[in-house]
Amino acid sequence: MLKRVHFGPSALPYLLVTPQILITIVFFIWPASQALYQSLLIQDAFGLSTEFVWFENFQTLFEDHYYLDAFDRTIFFSVLVASLSMGFSLMLAAMADRVIKGATIYRTLLIWPYAVAPVVAGALWVFMFDPTLGIFTYMLMAFGYEWNHKLNGGEAMTLVVIASAWKQVAYNFLFFLAGMQSIPKSLIEAAAIDGAGPIRRFWTIILPLISPTTFFLLVVNIVYAFFETFGIVHAVTQGGPAKSTEILVYKVFNDGFVGLDLGGSAAQSVILMAMVIGLTVIQFRYVEKKVEYS
Amino acid sequence: MSVSKKLLATAAVAAFVGSTGLASAVTEVQWWHAMGGTNGERVNKIATDFNATQSEYKVVPTYKGNYTETMTAAVAAFRAKKQPHIVQVFEVGTATMMAAKGAVYPVEQMMKDAGEPFDKSIYLPAVISYYQTPTGDLLSMPFNSSTPVLWYNKDAFKKAGVSNPPKTWNEMKSASEKLVAAGYKCGFSFGWQSWVMIENYSSWHNLAIGTKENGFAGLDTKFTFNNDKVKARLASIASWSKDKLFTYGGRRGDSLSMFTNGECGMWMNSSAYYGSIKKQAKFEAGQAMLPLDTDAASKPQNSIIGGATLWVLKGRDKADYKGVAKFLTYLSSPEVQAWWHQETGYVPITTPAYELSKKQGFYKTHPGTDTAIKQLSLNKPTPNSRGLRFGNFVQIRDILNEEMEAIWSGKKTAANALDEAASRGDKLLRKFERANK
Question: Taking CA atoms, what residue in A is nearest to B73?
Fold first, then answer.
């Protein structure tokens, strides 16, 4: 039998975790429970008349094909943003890993976009692609292509995806680069002596060894695309034209803050909350177990 | 008082300065508004000028973002019991505000309670009818009201050989054809498309937008804007976009630059773009009345207003409302209104302000600037042209934006899109009816 070591009861550990617990309650548990409660109500904007309707708001949502379309659209959007930004930053990191002269400057410049707030990033892209005044619109015109993302949903989606992916490249780059630099040089040198070229070494040594980073980034990027791209969508398209860039998180805002439909909006945020919980569980349960950490 | 208490008191005061004001002899009146840029400066000037006329009250204007943001901010503030005295709400928020009986202090009632003289008859009928109860009580104070007009580029018209601004939609087409033939990128465009092409198109041709007198007579209203006339008009506009007679340029005022850059020779949008157009356009711009659709009506009825009114919110100190009342009186005085009208292009809300502008010779030196007011008072408003009062209309306008964008991009026919918009809109009307029983 194991011998148990007993410490006398002490308030200290509880005291030490109190701030953290308070923060969690005030900033997470309380708002989340408010959202849960609100999602069961039909209420006017000013909160003067309230009707408790159980799950009717959810039922309405799932009968609304616009909501289901927003679901598909969000998945499409997230996959594009995650793969584009991860692919591009992986390439940049692989290059930066090999740079010897001026490496610091190169890296610093690549990290810069991360310091740009999403709304500002969105505003930048809006200026460049404005159908009337944008410089890129002007250039595209020279090739005979008429760009108008205010009318063309596909173009609007392209613009939002590019802007969102661009914003995340810096973050991904940092992690990829750190992952690559932690690979022991001896492994790569050994492969080089065996005659493997840079591309071969990348595919057979570097990529498998940074897979934990890749999986971590995959989850982070999907969460980013789901939630943090709000600012970009708001600045670039506001969900338009004809809902073609209205992703779930934007719909929560639109229904709740523009439309003042608080119950419906709360129900949507509860669904989003469940999805984040799901993603986190997947990350910890499955992904972390299957990925090789050396 | 101990040091820590003093600190605490200072902190508490600092925290509440923004919302309740310092406790001093001057009573502060919080005014939340949605006027950015130059109009924001004009709003500040009105407040400063009012503050200079007396020493008892101080009006503090705060810019809260665009119309929806301002309204949401006021709603959130009310729920947190930190509401401003006065909030500027755009016309489509009227039904929401009206339904919030416990939250709004009807202006006419407030003036009476504060003992402030108030003569309703000086206000222009087309302006205040939008904001009256069925029994005629004024609920909110009209502040910035405008109506869509047809803006046109006089230089472009000369170049293209169009002698007069189009009076009918057929003339719109031929003028656009001439403009495009003369090398312009598009004939015409418009902004705030639900307001201009659905709401005002309907009132201009005396067509109902919804049942129950456009929602004035009850919450159990249904949309009827998906009628053959609106469908036919939008369908023909969509068919013109192939030849660039019409180009869509985005929601709200996004398409302004297409007009001021000289890309489109005509633009239908609010008369309140007067200031911006005067500043940005390098050509001479004119205003004309909206074109008549001869297939829909034989003569125009009247257009309806857009813009915003000032709502007074309940729940502040009783004494504060005296200041609110004094300020609203100042705001609707002929001098302030005439200045505001002439600077911004919003219509004057009272007859004395209109008369004053006439007397000052403003319309002679600025021809066309009385188009909006003439359009609004063209005929006595009918139940179809008095305005509209639909709940959740902010969202419904978004639906209309989406469906109309689907028409312009060719994804849907005008008939399908309008039917879909009406049925989606009806759902939101039912939801509003239920939440505001």
Answer: A257
Residue of A nearest to B396 (CA): A259
Q: Which residues of B touch A255 (CB under 8 A)?
A: 395
Whether chain A has a CB inside 8 Å of the CB on B257: the answer is yes
Asked whether residue B196 carries a pLDDT value surpassing 70, the answer given is yes
Q: What is the ipTM of this complex?
A: 0.71
Question: What's the confidence (pLDDT) of residue A97?
Answer: 81
Cβ atoms of A246 and A239 closer than 8 Å: yes
Question: Could you tell me which of A230, A252, A253, A248 has the C-alpha nearest to residue A117?
Answer: A230
Collapsed DSSP state (helix, strand, coil) of residue A235: helix
A245 DSSP assignment: T
The domain ranges of chain A are 56-290
Residues in chain B closer than 8 A to A46 (CB atoms): 75, 78-79, 100, 102-103
Question: Are B246 and B188 contacting, i.e. CB atoms less than 8 angstroms apart?
Answer: yes
d(CA B221, CA A224): 42
Confidence of residue B13 (pLDDT cuts 50, 70, 90): very low
Q: What is the mean pLDDT of residues B357-368?
A: 91
Among A51, A150, A243, the residue with its CB nearest the CB of B250 is A150
Write down the pLDDT at residue A287: 66
B401 CB neighbours in chain A (<8 A) are 240, 242
Chain A contact present for B68, CB below 8 A: yes
Alpha carbon of B395: minimum distance to chain A alpha carbons (Å): 5
Q: Which of A132, A242, A260 sits opposite B409 (nearest CB)?
A: A242
Q: Which of B67, B392, B409 is the best residue to mutate to test the A interface, defined by the most A CB atoms within 10 Å of its own CB?
A: B409
Q: Give the separation between CA B405 and CA B255, rounded to whole angstroms.
A: 14
Distance in Å, alpha carbon of B358 to nearest chain A alpha carbon: 38
User: What whole-number distance in Å separates Cα of residue B244 and Cα of residue A235?
Assistant: 28
Q: Give the pLDDT mean for A254-277.
A: 88
Which residue of A lies nearest to B76 if distances are taken between CA atoms?
A: A46
Enumerate the β-bridge partners of residue B269: B149
- Determine the Cα–Cα distance for residues B256 and B344; give it in Å rounded to an integer: 16
Predicted pLDDT of residue A232: 92
CA distance A49 to chain B (A): 7
| Tokens coding A242 | 């004809």
Q: Mind listing the pLDDT tens digit for each residue in B91-138?
A: 888 888 888 888 999 999 999 999 999 998 899 888 888 888 878 889
Q: Worst-scoring range by mean pLDDT, A12-21, B125-134, B196-205?
A: B125-134
Q: What residue ranges do the domains of chain B occupy? A: 3-146+306-364, 148-303+391-435
Task: Tell whether the model's pLDDT for residue A78 goes beyond 90.
Answer: yes
Dihedral of CA atoms A158, A131, B393, B39 in degrees, nearest 10, equals 130
Domains B3-146+306-364 and B148-303+391-435 share a fold: yes
Residue A1 — very low, low, confident or very high, per pLDDT cuts 50/70/90?
low
DSSP annotation of B223: B
Residue of B nearest to A147 (CA): B249
Residues of A in contact with B79 (CB under 8 A): 46-47
- Rounded to a whole number of angstroms, the distance from the CA of A85 to the nearest CA of chain B is 29
In words, the CATH class of domain B148-303+391-435 is alpha beta
Residues 6+ apart with CB under 8 A from A60: A264
pTM, whole model, 2 decimals?
0.78
Q: Phi, psi at residue B105, to the nearest 5°?
A: -105, 105
Q: Find the residue in A nearest to B257 (Cα).
A: A132
How many Cα neighbours within 13 Å face the side chain of A96? 26
C-alpha of A135 from chain center: 28
**Superfamily of domain A56-290 in the CATH hierarchy:** MetI-like (1.10.3720.10)
Q: How many angstroms separate the CA atoms of A184 and A67, rounded?
A: 49
| CATH architecture designation of domain B3-146+306-364 | 3-Layer(aba) Sandwich (3.40)
